[in-house]
Amino acid sequence: MKATMSMSYRLMKSEINQMNQEMYNLRERVTSGKKVSQPSDDPSVIRPVLSFRSQIQRNEKFQDNISIAQSNMNIYDTKVGQISDSLVKIKDTAILGVNGSYDQNNKDILADQISRLKSDIQDIANSRVNNKYAFAGFNDLTKPFVTNDQGVIESQGDVRQKELEISPGETIQVNLTGEKFLMGRKDTNGDGYLENSGVNIFQEIKKTELAMRGHEGQIVDASGEALSDSEYLDGNPETGVQRLVDAAGDPIDDDSGDQIAIEYDGQPIYLTELRNVEGETVTIGDLENPESYNLDSSNVPPDPANELTAAALDKAVYIHKNGDIAKYDRDGDPILTDDTGDAVEKSAAAGGGYVSLLESGQPMQKMYVPELTNQLDELDNALNQVSRYRGQMGNNAARVKDASEQLEESVLDIKEALSSYEDADIAKLYSELVQQQTALQAALKVSSRIAQLSMLNYM
Predict the structure, then answer these.
(1) pLDDT at residue 22 above 80?
(2) Cβ neighbours, 10 Å, residue 201
(3) What residues form DSSP beta bridges with 146?
C-alpha cells in the first residue's frame, strides 16, 4: 500500500497525542503520589485497594466511638467523684455529731450541713451534658431526680445502658444510671422489673440527718415527722413497732383482740412504685397474674364480685423495701398482710375490713431512724456502692484505652498495606517523566522536519 503524506501526518499526530496523554498521566501520579487513581490504571489492584479503604473507614468510625466513649467516661468519673466527696463530707459531719460534747443546737447545725450536701448530690445527679441528663439512662430528656410533696427524692430515669461499638463485635457501656448507683435499684432476675437490690443513698442521707436532729430510735414518715408515743405498740416508742390507731390515738385491734402491728418483714412499711427497666410505672394490669395478689379473691370462695375492678388494673403496683409486691384489695389499693401473706383485718368492733397502706391517697412510707453511730455503717455501704460503680466505669475506660491503641496499630498496618498497592514510587515516576519528555521533544523535532519536506527543496 502506498504511504501518502497525509497518512504520515495522521500517524505522527496519533503518536504525539498518545505521548502527551502518557505525560499527563505521569504528571497526575507525581502530583497525587498515587499510582492508581482509577480502575483502568491497574484493574488487578482495585479489589484489595477498595477493601483496605473500607477497613480504614470502618476503623475511623470505631475511633469516633472511642473518642465519644472516653469523653463520656471522663465526665462520669468527675461527677461520681464529686458525689463520693460529698458522701465523705456527710460521714465526717456525722462523726462530729457522735461526739458527746455537741448539744442539740450544734447538732441541728450539722444536720443543716448534711441537708445541704444532699441537695448538692441531687444537683450533680441532675447535671446535663449536651442538654441531656447524664444519669437518666435513655430517659435523658427528663430530669431524673425530683423531690415530691413529702420531701422524698424520687427517680424518673431508667437503668438501660448506652453502648458504643469500639471494635468489630465489641460494645461497651458508656453511661451510668442514677437509678442503680444512687437509688440501689436494678433488674436482678431478668423479669424486666426493678428490685431494691442496693442502697438508696438519698434515703440513708435523710436518715443520717434525722438522727442528727434527735430522732434516733424513732419511726418517721416521708416528711421526717416522728410518730407520737400512742402510735407505737403498747404506747411505748422503745418497741420500735408502729401500731394501728384511730383518730383519737386509741389502738385498733384485730379479731383476736390483739394490737395490729403496721410492719412488713420486721420493718416499718415503706412502699414505692414498681417500675420496669424503661423507667415506667408498672400497673396491676401489667402483671402476669394480677389476681394472684388480690386478697379479695384468694381469701374467699371464687366469686366474680371479688375479682379486680376495671379501675384497679390501671393502678400502680407497690413493692415493700425487700422487693416483695404488696398485695391489694379488689379496688387495687395495697393492704397490710401478716407473716403468712394473709390479709390483716380489723375487729368487728372497729368496723372490720382490711388495713389500707395508703395515707391520704399516697403509699405509706415509714422508716426507722437508727442510732447515729450505727448509721455510719450505712454511709459506708453507700460509699462502697458508689465506689463499686465508679470502679466498673474505670474498668470500661481501661478497656476503651486498650481498644484505641489496638485500633491505631491496626490502622497503621492497613495503611501500610494499602500504600504498597496504591502509592507511587516518586523517584521512579520522575525518571519516567523525564524520559517521556525527552521522547516527546524528539518526536516533535522529527515531525517538524517531516513537515518541511517539499519538492522545492530539491529544485
Answers:
(1) no
(2) 27
(3) 154
Q: Looking at residue 177, what DSSP letter applies?
A: -
Give pLDDT tens digits for 224-274.
999 999 999 999 999 999 999 998 999 999 988 999 999 999 999 999 999
Residue 301 region by backbone torsions, left for phi larger than 0, else alpha for psi between -120 and 50, else beta:
beta
Is the model's pLDDT at 90 over the cut of 90? Answer: yes
Residue 398 scores a pLDDT above 90: yes
CA separation (Å) from 390 to 40, 125, 431?
56, 14, 62
Cell 411505748, located at residue? 236
What domain range is 99 assigned to?
A: 60-217+369-423
Please check the confidence at residue 453 and state whether its pLDDT lies above 60: no
The pLDDT of residue 34 is above 70? no
State the CATH number of the domain containing residue 90.
1.20.1330.10
Verdict on whether the full-model pTM lies above 0.70: yes
The verdict on 70 and 203 lying in the same domain is yes
Q: What is the pLDDT of residue 100?
A: 75
* 3-class secondary-structure state, position 451: helix
| DSSP secondary structure code for residue 367 in this structure | E
3-state secondary structure of 99: coil
Closest CA to 335 of 221, 220, 244, 231: 244
DSSP β-ladder status, 153-155 and 163-167: unpaired
Give the position of cell 453507700: 382
Is residue 183 assigned to a domain? yes
Task: Return the residue matching grid coordinates 410518730.
Answer: 227
In a domain, 20, yes or no: yes
Domains in the chain, number = 3
Tell me which DSSP letter residue 292 carries: G
DSSP state string for 351-405:
T--B-B-EETTEE-B-EE---HHHHHHHHHHHHHHHHHHHHHHHHHHHHHHHHHH
Which residue pairs, CB below 8 angstroms and at least 24 apart, start in 7-10?
A: 8/450, 9/450, 9/451
C-alpha distances (whole Å) from 168 to each of 84, 124, 165, 171, 173 are: 35, 35, 7, 8, 15
Average pLDDT, the chain: 86
Residue 264: which H helix or E strand, with range? Answer: strand 263-264
Sign of the torsion formed by the C-alpha atoms of 352, 355, 361 and 366: positive
